[in-house]
Amino acid sequence: MTSAAIIVAAGRGTRAGGDLPKQWQLLAGEPVLTHTIEALRPFVDMVVLAIHPDDREKAAHYALPMVDGGSTRMQSVRNALEWLSDKGIENVLIHDGARPTVPGHIVRSVLKALETSPGAAPALAVTDALWRGTSVVEGTADRTGLWRAQTPQGFHFDAILKAHRSALQDAADDVELARAAGYTVAIVPGDEDNLKVTFPGDFLRAEAILKGRRMDIRVGNGFDVHAFTEGQGVWLCGVRVPHTKALLGHSDADVGMHALTDAIYGALAEGDIGVHFPPSDPQWKGAESQIFLRHAMQRVQERGFSLSNCDVTLICERPKVGPHQGEMRAALAEIMGVEIERISVKATTSEKLGFTGREEGIAALATATLVKK
Ligand code: MG
């Protein structure tokens, strides 16, 4: 199913204050339009911008297809639809450039509704009382069955293109056009956070919404111990380190990687290695520990997080870890698919105290920080 999003950003509206049209004003350090694009891009195969001709240069760095906006919203959308008409698009979302905080669940609901309806759009039921009047209340209106329309409005591509081509007069939005052409438009739940930035105060609210989402930071810790046994050399953080002993364990006994993997599972509140790879299951006997770490990182991806950083501390008298630190960081970076500067590996002794001091085994501590994308 090939899908596209049209972002309508050709308006010159400056009701939001400032000299620039609102889609170009800064929100949390980036133009409003940048946030809008980022909000939709994960859900569609292609994003097209309807841009005022004067803004082409400003929008060039997005490296997205652009069409000229028309004198009305409807004309802007029409231009984008015509541009898309030979691209094999089946579903199209049409979204206001000035709605930078649209939550992902809305976009998913609209796309889902298109499986059974030629059109679908988010809306919120009107809950406030409605009055008529100018400076005094002259009457009330029944709010039953009234909705506040939001975007993205989604359509089967052929249907909305046909609706635009056959339109006889200007329409407020694409839902109106689709209905005029005889298509059903389903209502999906909107969200108060799907703000249309219109007035100066809206920027503060939009910024608070974005900040609230960005603040989803998870920290997990992990701890592991493996005892020494007879053998030659140990696996530590993905590196084979020469030693006069080996580490005892069900898998390759990479104590550092185990602590790190548990830290990641911990940050996700998804248990530990033992939950995902039960030691009672013979298939994990002698397993390379990178299988566990790769799985934990896959879960990070699937849950919509990215790893911000991690820090592993190995506790032992011997072998000396220092000479291998760089190699360990590189090995973990490769397995985890993150930049090496996000990964720290360090070592300490326990001043000859305790089981690590008596060289009976190695202990490892790890911390991992995840950030919601
Ligand atoms: Mg272990």
Q: Kindly state the mean pLDDT as a whole number?
A: 94
Bound molecules: magnesium ion
Give the end-to-end Cα distance, rounded to a whole number of Å: 25 Å
Q: How many separate helices?
A: 12
- Relative helix content: 25-40%
- Uncertain stretches of 5 or more adjacent residues: none
- Quickly give the structural class: alpha/beta
Whole-angstrom Rg: 28 Å
Quick summary:
This protein has 373 residues and is α/β, with parallel strands linked by helices. Helices cover 30% and strands 28% of the residues. Strands 1, 4, 5, 6, 7, 10, 11 and 12 form an eight-stranded mixed β-sheet that branches. The protein has a five-stranded mixed β-sheet with strand order 16-13-19-17-18.
Description:
This protein has 373 residues and is of the alpha/beta class. Helices cover 30% and strands 28% of the residues. It contains twelve helices and 19 strands. Strands 1, 4, 5, 6, 7, 10, 11 and 12 form an eight-stranded mixed β-sheet that branches. Strands 16-13-19-17-18 form a five-stranded mixed β-sheet. Helix 2 links the parallel strand 4 and strand 5. Helix 5 packs across helix 6. The protein is elongated. The mean pLDDT is 94. The structure holds magnesium ion. Magnesium ion is lined by residues 224, 226, 249, 255, 258.
